[in-house]
Design goal:
19 strands; binds N~2~-sulfamoyl-L-arginine; eight-stranded mixed beta sheet; binds zinc ion; Immunoglobulin-like; Alpha-Beta Plaits; globular; 24% strand
């Protein structure tokens, strides 16, 4: 790793002050036209990276002294917002379209109160400064035993949506809260929402970092605070800063236990760095909330919202490799991107986290690496839309898009995993639980070599057929003929007489039918 040694005049000012005078802090774009120049910026000690375009530029929040030094070593830069901490730029979330903490808290409790059959509010703890609670909403159609509210129904697939690992990303609080409201408002009239509420369990944590997020809003937003309230010198003063990019706090998206600190590349051991990974793996109360939840709840997929940059990022972050489930991640990212394209007329960049820059101890690597959960990071918005703090007018369109992103993703998760849960004994009449539904699983393995297993569920004993067709629609193999038993059915078929290629298998049972693709590859 290349690291420049930066010389600073330590001001020991509180970050709430504007750093006015001779070392004014700006939001700037620093150009890095090759991989080496890019890496030397992204991993540089004390440099606060806001967003990136690999091999092209790095957006930073930096004092003028840092920008001057970069210019002196050959980098060019332009201001995206000169003096970005200026109090004049602070709208104050409480008076604008963004929620402040009190508004978030009251909206969450109103949502649970007004939708008491499907929406449950949990307080999962707080951060070091105890400025606010880490709330989760749990959305499903049965009443949990109160003291076991975080325990899940093993017969339903669970999904998790998290916002605001990073304090200065308030849009992520808006979009996660918005989806909770969307589910409540559209239940039971929207059939996809009805299925999600009745047959799945959705956990939504709008603000994982309430301390940082509240601090970011003190005297109005735009403090550009990233980390939590870890009080390094234990003097009772949180959020102390020694010049921009050298402040207290732990980067929550570097503190998870999976490959924490791997190779000392992609997170920082230095307490004052913007990507400080914390004193030990999983040291922070906020990451412990997620770790505790992931250990108790059988999540199958998760979204972590960040801003800004227009990315969909999948494992890995800690090494320069895709994961074993890359094909599934690619499919899930494409499902999300289809919705984004419909709204923006362009895709987000979907790739491995490492292709953006290496991270270790991040949420996505932990969820997937430790628990096999299909988790991605979605970085919302661009610098053109205001970076971390888009105008109020951009909140509505963003939430409209992400409501549909979350809905479509949850529906995809159901298609992927739902029938497996139905298969694991979630029979009609079980409580809590859902009635058996008609569902066709993805065959396995896929691609198949010779033999493939086909699983599906039917709501009652019924006549039908499961057959494989080639892409011209010609039936090439009858896998099974009914009557099929109520509940889960599984058949194995020998496909060794079929040439390599893409096929479609189709299940017809009574008036229901469904089809999926299978690839034969040998
Ligand atoms: O650095 C992060 O934690 C995320 N970006 S942010 O600007 N919101 O801080 C990105 C994490 C995605 N993972 C990797 N790039 N490996
Ligand atoms: Zn972030």
């Amino acid at each position: 790793m290349k690291r420049a040694i930066l010389v600073f005049t330590f001001t020991f000012a509180a970050c709430g002050s504007a750093f006015a005078g001779d070392d004014v802090v700006s939001w700037a774009r620093v150009y890095a036209d090759d991989g080496e120049a890019y890496a030397s910026l992204v991993y540089r000690e004390g440099l606060d990276v806001a967003s990136v375009s690999p091999g092209e530029y790095v957006d930073v929040i930096a004092p003028q002294s840092t920008l001057d030094e970069l210019a002196g070593t050959g980098y060019s830069y332009e201001y995206l917002q000169f003096d970005c901490l200026s109090p004049e730029l602070r709208g104050g979330r409480g008076y604008s379209g963004y929620h402040n903490y009190d508004e978030l808290e009251s909206d969450l409790s109103n949502l649970a109160d007004n939708n008491e059959d499907i929406c449950w509010l949990m307080n999962l703890g707080d951060g070091h400064a105890d400025m606010g609670n880490i709330y989760a909403l749990k959305i499903h159609d049965y009443e949990p035993v109160p003291e076991e509210v975080v325990l899940n129904d093993p017969n339903k697939p669970d999904i998790l949506i998290v916002g605001c690992h990073h304090a200065r990303e308030p849009m992520t609080v808006e979009v996660t809260l918005s989806f909770a409201e969307f589910l409540c408002q559209n239940y039971p009239s929207n059939s996809t929402v009805k299925n999600i509420v009745e047959n799945m369990e959705t956990f939504i944590i709008p603000c994982l970092n309430p301390d940082g997020w509240i601090y970011d809003d003190v005297e109005g937003s735009r403090h550009y605070w990233r980390k939590n309230a870890y009080d390094y010198d234990d003097d009772g003063n949180y959020f102390e800063d020694q010049g921009w990019g050298y402040g207290e706090g732990v980067d929550l998206n570097r503190n998870y236990t999976y490959q924490w600190g791997y190779d000392d590349y992609g997170s920082s051991p230095v307490w004052s760095d913007p990507t400080y990974r914390g004193p030990s793996a999983g040291s922070e109360p906020e990451t412990q909330v997620i770790i505790g939840l992931a250990e108790r709840v059988d999540f199958v997929s998760a979204l972590s919202f960040h801003s800004y940059g227009e990315w969909i990022l999948r494992p890995w972050g800690y090494i320069d490799q895709y994961s074993d489930d890359n094909a599934k991640f690619v499919e899930m990212s494409a499902v999300i991107n289809n919705v984004i394209y419909d709204h923006l007329g362009r895709n987000y960049t979907a790739c491995g986290g490492w292709e953006m820059y290496n991270t270790n101890g991040d949420f996505v690597d932990y969820m997937y690496g430790e628990h096999d959960i299909l988790a991605v990071t979605i970085e919302l918005n661009s610098s053109g839309q205001g970076g971390f703090y888009p105008d109020d007018s951009w909140i509505g369109p963003t939430c409209d898009m992400t409501d549909e992103v979350c809905l479509t993703w949850a529906d995809w998760v159901w298609d992927e995993f739902g029938s497996v849960y139905v298969a694991s004994g979630n029979g009609a009449g079980d409580e809590p639980g859902a009635a058996v539904v008609f569902a066709l699983e993805q065959s396995r393995p896929n691609p198949a070599r010779d033999v493939a297993v086909f699983g599906f569920s039917v709501p009652e004993t019924i006549d039908g057929e499961l057959a494989v067709y080639d892409i011209t629609g010609r039936k090439v193999e009858t896998v099974a003929e009914g009557p099929f038993d109520e509940g889960y059915n599984e058949y194995t078929a020998d496909l060794s007489n079929l040439p390599s290629g893409v096929y479609v298998y189709r299940l017809v049972a009574g008036s229901d039918s469904a089809a999926k693709k299978i690839v034969v590859n040998r």
